[in-house]
Each structure stands twice: as C-alpha cells, then as structure tokens.
Design brief:
single chain, alpha+beta, 6-stranded antiparallel sheet, 32% helix
C-alpha cells in the first residue's frame, strides 16, 4: 500500500459557544501516546470510550467555571488579561458527526502523528518529564486537568490553540480564530471543494 493509499485517521473538532477542542480516536497508538493520563488516574482504555477529547484554556476560567452559573468576575478578568494555561482531557463515548457543533476531519497518518505530538507537547512536563494532573481538578469521573505550556489571554485563547494544532496536522485555518464560529467557518471554507 502506498503512502497515498494509507488509511486516513478521523479526528473531530468540537465547538460550543466559546470553546473548541479536538477529539482523537481511543486507538492503541493514542492510548500509548497519552499513557501518562491513565497513570494519573483517568484510564483511557475505559469500557465504552471511543474518543479522547483535548482542550487547552485559561486555568482560572476552566477550573472555576464548569457551568455558566459558576461564572465569577475573577476568571473573566484573567481571561481578558493573562492566566496560566491548562490542558483538559476527557474520555467520551460515541460522538455523532451529524451534530452541528462537530466537524469530522480525516488526516493522513503522518499528519495524525504530528497532531498527537503537538497535543502532547502542550502539556507541561512534571518531574522526570511526565505531566502530572492538577490535584482535585475535574468536572466529574471522566476528565482531568493538567498544567499546560504557554499563557492564556483573550488574544491567544483556546480556539487559537485548536487552530494551531490543526495547522500542525497540515490543515489550513484562518490566521487568527479567537471564537469558535471563526474557526469552524475557517475549516468549512478551506475544506470546500
């Protein structure tokens, strides 16, 4: 089988009103690349898990605002100025690609590998180079938070991280995609035949 005939790997770009993330299939190579997550107490080979969802964002907003009802002034100020960043890892079952907030993208194996490396390099290494979770930080039983590399602000936020990861994987996105609709529009525009 030639390189051009190699099976493509599907990823999902997930969007809500303010945030985007990337879902990768819970395949053996993904589980191996992110084995440190399982080692930190979130087994990624959990029964029924089809996707591992990654998001990057501002620490105070992500950790202190699990729902809009939890919104407080402090995290909003941090988002508008500067905050430390975190990686959010969530295991998920089936995610229907027919949903309006889901974009399926098929990548060639080398591009998929670059995406995994880009996501992995977003985690801040702990002792011995292994990322360590943030103690007590989770929304529930199926997710964890880790310190991330880089600082967060309104100009360089979660959606620009997602776009950067997609560009690492060889996709074309807008240069600056601060909001989910701008990233999704950019993906749709560049994916058009």
């Amino acid at each position: 089988m030639s390189r051009s005939e190699a099976p493509r790997r599907r990823i999902l770009v997930l969007a809500n009103a303010i945030h985007t993330g990337i879902a990768v299939p819970a395949d053996p190579d993904v589980l191996e690349a992110f084995a440190f997550v399982s080692g930190e107490g979130l087994p990624l080979d959990y029964p029924g898990v089809s996707w591992i969802v990654f998001g990057w964002g501002g620490r105070s907003f992500y950790l202190e605002t699990p729902t809009w009802a939890d919104l407080k002034p402090g995290p909003v100020i941090d988002v508008l100025t500067w905050d430390r960043s975190v990686m959010h890892v969530r295991r998920s079952g089936d995610i229907p690609v027919s949903l309006s907030n889901v974009r399926a993208v098929d990548l060639a194996p080398p591009d998929f590998g670059r995406l995994l490396s880009g996501i992995r390099s977003s985690f801040q290494p702990g002792n011995a180079g292994i990322p360590r979770r943030i103690a007590g930080a989770a929304y529930g039983d199926h997710d964890l938070f880790f310190p991330a590399n880089g600082g967060f602000n309104a100009l360089a936020g979660c959606n620009t991280w997602t776009a950067h990861m997609l560009r690492i994987a060889g996709l074309t996105t807008g240069t600056w995609t601060p909001l989910p609709f701008s990233l999704v529009w950019s993906l749709d525009l560049h994916a058009a035949p």
